[in-house]
Structure formats: C-alpha cells, structure tokens
Amino acid sequence: MTGRSAPAVLPPSLRAWLGLIAALATLVVVVLGVLYADDSKPGMVDARIWAAVDGVGPPWRQVALATDFLGEPVGAATLVVAAVAGCLLLRRPRAAVLIVAGAAMTVGTATLLKHLVGRTIHGDGNLSYPSGHTAFAAALALAVALLATGRLGLGRMAGTLLVLAAALVAGAAMGWAQVALGAHYPTDVLGGWCTALAVIPATAWLVDRTADRMADRLGDRMADAGRRERR
After folding, report:
1. DSSP character for 8?
2. d(C-alpha 36, C-alpha 33), whole Å
3. Which of 57, 126, 191, 199 could be a cystine partner for 106, CB 3.0 to 4.6 Å?
4. Beta partners for residue 127, in sequence order
C-alpha cells in the first residue's frame, strides 16, 4: 500500500519551496529560542499583543477554550483519528502515515525545545516556548493540505499557497486561543507555528523515501521469486 504506486505525500513540485520554507522556519525557531532562553516574562512585542488579546470575555472565551481543547490529548487524538480515516478512505496511505508521524514528530520536537529553551510563564513549572498546541494544529493542517494538493494536482505556486494558507489559518486560530487564555506568549505561538513548518516537510520527505525503498525491496523480492519459478 505504500509502494511507488501510492502517490507521494510530498508533491515533487513543492519540494524545493517547502525545503526553503522549512530552513527559514528552523532559523526563526532557533533565533527566538536563543532570545528567550530561561526567560520568564513577555518581550516588548509580546506585551503589546498580549494586552490586546489576553483575558477575552464571553462568548469569545468559550471559543478559545473549545479551540484549546483540540490541542489537548483527547481532542488532538480525535482529530488525528478522523484525518487518518479520511486518508484511508481516499486510499492515501502515505498521507495517513504522515499525519500520525508528523503530529508525533512535531509535538515531540516542541516538547524537547521547551526543555532546552527553558522559557516559562506563570511559574517555573510552566514551560512555554514553543507552543505545542499551535505546533500540532499547524502540523495537522499542513499534512491535510499536502494531501489536498496531491489530490487536486495543484502546481507549485497554487500548492505552496494552499499549504501555507492552511498552516496560517490553523496556527493563527490555535495561537489566538493560547494567547487569549494566557497560556502562551505570542512569540511562543510563532515558535510553535515555525516548528510545524520545519518538521512536516522533512517528515513527508522521509515517509516518501522510506515507502519507496520498501517498494523497491518488495519488487526485487518478487522479481527474484519469479525467476526462481521459471527455472
């Protein structure tokens, strides 16, 4: 199911662009991580944005809480299962693998970065950079957008715009919820968004490369078996 007959999860037309975007996103994550390492207070930009967004009242607080739930374990697992089921129904097994592996790799990377950077919010035990909720939401949106790009046969420009737009909308929605609820600084949100932009293209490339190698090995074994039968 994951052989070369299965469509690539990372469209060839997008590889160069997404590779460049991933490199730039990685740079942003590193720069912000260095700037806010072991910090426990908002920066100048954080303070300005936080003052305008933090502490929203009803009904927007309920919207923020509902959005935040989608990044919690139960909500996130539900989204992943639904997305995987959709991929399998569309006969896109590589996309299903990307959704699971991409979400796990992105959240794992964000968690590792939190411990490395050591930025906190509301107390020493609350590591904040980068936002794992935002990273997950953007990663899932990126994976689904890559599936849509392949299914629709979009070109380089249209495909890149779709992928970035999906990541931006999902990341902005979850990021707003995190800042509105006081769970993260705005720069944490940016770091989480960029983490997804850095991890998902690399994971997609690895999924395709691994699947292609497995298909090649299977093809070689079948060819050998066929030759032995003819003898």
Report:
1. P
2. 5
3. 199
4. 120
- Residue 146, both tokens: 């890559």
- The tally of CA atoms less than 13 A away on the side-chain side of residue 197 is 29
Q: Checking phi first, is residue 36 left (phi over 0); if not, alpha (psi -120 to 50) or beta?
A: alpha
∠ CA 180-185-191, nearest 5°, is 120
Q: Token pair for residue 26?
A: 């990685």
**Nearest to 98, CA basis, from 148, 47, 46:** 148
Task: Determine the residue type at 45.
Answer: V
In sequence order, which residues have a C-beta less than 8 Å from that of residue 73 and are 6 or more positions away? none
Q: Which one, of 141, 135, 143, lies nearest residue 101 by Cα?
A: 143
Average pLDDT of the chain, as a whole number: 89
Q: Which residue type is seen at 95?
A: A
Tell me the sheet residues that pair with 120. Answer: 127
Distances 133 to 51, 87, 142, 201 between C-alpha atoms, Å: 21, 23, 14, 19
pLDDT tens-digit map of 6-49: 788 998 889 999 999 999 999 999 999 999 999 988 888 888 88
pTM confidence score: 0.89
Q: Does residue 212 contact residue 154 with C-beta atoms inside 8 Å?
A: no
Cα 108 off chain centre by: 11
Within 8 A by CB and 6+ apart from 183, the residues are 68, 121, 128, 131, 133
Cβ count within 10 A of residue 231: 4
Least Cα distance to 9 among 185, 220, 124, 163 occurs for 163
For residue 3, pLDDT over 70 is answered with no
Amino acid type, 77: A
